Each structure stands twice: as structure tokens, then as C-alpha cells.
Amino acid sequence: MAYAEATRTEAADRAAPAKPPSQFWRKVRYQLLNVFAGLVLLYLFVPISVIILFSFNDPAGKFNLTWHKFSTDAWAHPFGVPSLQDAVVLSLKIAFLSTLVATLLGTLVALALARYSFRGRGATNFAIFTPMATPEIVMGSSLLTLFIATSGWPIGVDLGFWTILIAHIMFNISYVVVTVKARVYGFDRRLEEAAMDLYANSYTTFRRITLPLIMPGIGAAAALAFALSIDDFIVTQFNRGAEVTFPLFIYGAARNGVPVQVNVIGSIIFLVAVGGMLLNLMIQNSRAKRDARASAGAVRRAQASEAAA
Predict the structure, then answer these.
(1) Higher model confidence: residue 195 or residue 234?
(2) Domains of the chain, CATH where assigned
(3) CA-to-CA dists, residue 160 to 142, 200, 225, 241, angstroms
């Protein structure tokens, strides 16, 4: 009898719902989460803040490592250092061109992998992920070997601008494919079917339905490709020939003293990137509000029609 009672008591204890944490511990956990998030953001933004701060420094010597006094001379003349402008322009050219080509090719590959089943699809997926998993030093040395081995061929190219561009397009395509493919998998295919039911052909459906829906993914992939290209060092170092990009200029200048203008250019790139991100968020929020107002208007019109009927 006692054993049966104990068994029923144990079963009742197991069946009883767990006691929720007290209000005090909920507040403690919430504050700890805020503190942890703040520390992570501090860890991420302190180096960037130092770069921006020291862009207003007027160092006493060549090295911009110790705060001397406040000055805006470097911002007034951001290209006041010889060869700095050429390095920045070269980096921007390569970043823009590689982003454009990689985004176009990567989007097409992502659509093919997400939409169609074909022989070699698994191998193609593996080949796309390989550059992302390969260490940059291996990728850079492999490309260098390829370019040197084919330099005497009719289609070969000498080390320089074109070899850097080819290398950047190659590793950017992988990131574009992964980003766009996730967006393609995410949207509702029934919207395309509805457009085709309304007699839209394949081209019109892609232009009016598919492309606008995957455009945020394409934009994110392009931004990622541009960021990866403009700050790449290892792959560029192997395949640059006599060309000097902005990261290579910083590496070379570090031996004699990094000028303040480097901090200025870095700050400008960061601020432009943040500004573009904020602009994109504003556009997305405005579009979401417009769609919500349109949906609410459609609901009101439907309700008014039902009431009139």
C-alpha cells in the first residue's frame, strides 16, 4: 500500500508543470543577456573606433600609433601620400568588376541548383563550396601556379590586373551562390504559379515576380562579394604581379610608417558600407509599410463589397 502511494506521488510530481522562474531571476537573465551583447559589440567596434579616431591624429613622426593632437588635414587631403590614390582606385576597380561578374554568374548558378535536377548537381554543389573551405594561401598559390603555367599559351595572361580580377571572381562566386540560393529556397513558389495561371510567360514571371523577390538576396550577395574583394590580401599577393592594391599598400607602408591617410580611407570605406546598409534597411522598411497599407486597403475594399452585397 505504501509502495503504491509513493509511486502515485512520484508520478504526480513528474506530471506537475515545472515551476516558472521568479521575476527576479528573469530580470537577472535579461540583464546578463544585454551585458553579453554589449561586450560582443564593444569587441567588434573598438578596433573600428580606433581607426576612425586616429584618422584625426597629427602624429609627431611617421608612425600613427600614438595620439599627438587633433587635426583634419588628412581628411582634407586623403590622397596626400604618393601611390595611395592609385592603390585605392585599383582596389575599387577590381572590387566593382569582380562583384558584377560574380553576382551575375553566381545568381544564375544558384537558380540552376535550386530549381533544376540534373546530372552532376551534387558535384557542382561540392565544387561551389570548395573555394570557401580552401585556405587562401592554398588558393593563391594554386592560382599562381596556373597563371605561370599558362603564361606562354595563346589564352594565357601575365600576372597583373587580369589575374587579380580572375582570382577575385573565382572565390566570390561561391559566396554569391550560397547567399542567393538560400533566398531562392525561401520564397513561395506559388506566386510564380499564380502569375503563370494569369497567362504570364516565363520571362515576364521571372522579371515581375522572381527577380524582385530574390533581389534582397542578390543585393546581400553583391555587398558580401564587394567587401571580400576590396580587403583581400593573400590571394592578391600571390597573383598581383607589379600591381599594388589598397591592402598591399598598407602592408608595404607598415614597414616605414602607416600614414594617417590610410586611416581616413579605411574610415570612408566603413562609413560608406554602414550608410549603404542603413539605406537598404530604410528601403526595405518603406516597402514593407507600403505593402502593409496596400493589403489593409484591399481588405477594407473587400469588406465594403461584402457589406454592400
Answers:
(1) 234
(2) 84-243 (1.10.3720.10)
(3) 16, 47, 20, 5
